[in-house]
Amino acid sequence: MFGYDAARMSTQPTSVQSLQDAIRAFCEARDWDRFHGAKDLAIGVATEAGELLEHFRFRSEDEVDALFRDPSARDEIAGEMADVAIFLLRMAQRYEIDLGRAVLDKLAVNAKRYPVETSRGSNRKAE
């Protein structure tokens, strides 16, 4: 149906590459490459991130916690998170960025920028 075996994927650990392969198959089956330039995909990330944010806007931490305990609200939030991830993974796939490697590289940069000794228990931005 989607151009990949969803049942097979759900029984195995999921890698970034397997997600990108599934997204590629889904989009190519629909001939969507022409609509998925970098600008359009970046707009998609931002748009979907805004839709995710709407679930939390003007809510206290207790209200947010309650959302995650409500199965329906939790499913909606998970769907919005998936939308953000799909656009981001699609962009990485289209422009041949190893997103897993990019995340690990960024964590290494952040480890230097935010050493445990000075950052533990603090959310202050590094200068």
Whole-number radius of gyration? 18 Å
- String of helices and strands: HHHHHHH
Low-confidence stretches: none
Broad CATH class of the domain at 37-119: Mainly Alpha
Overall, the morphology is: globular
Specify the biggest β-sheet.
Answer: none
CATH topology of the domain at 37-119: Helix Hairpins
- Assign a percent range to the helix content: 55-70%
Count of helices? 7
Q: Which CATH architecture of the domain at 37-119 is right?
A: Orthogonal Bundle
Euclidean distance between termini CA atoms: 49 Å
What is the assigned CATH homologous superfamily of the domain at 37-119? MazG-like
Could you say which structural class the secondary elements and strand pairing correspond to?
Answer: mainly alpha
Number of strands: 0
Beta content: under 5%
Explain this structure:
This protein is mainly α and 127 residues long. The chain has a domain of 83 residues: MazG-like (Helix Hairpins). Helix content is 69%, strand content 0%. The protein contains 7 helices and no strands. Helix 3 packs antiparallel against helix 5. The mean pLDDT is 90.
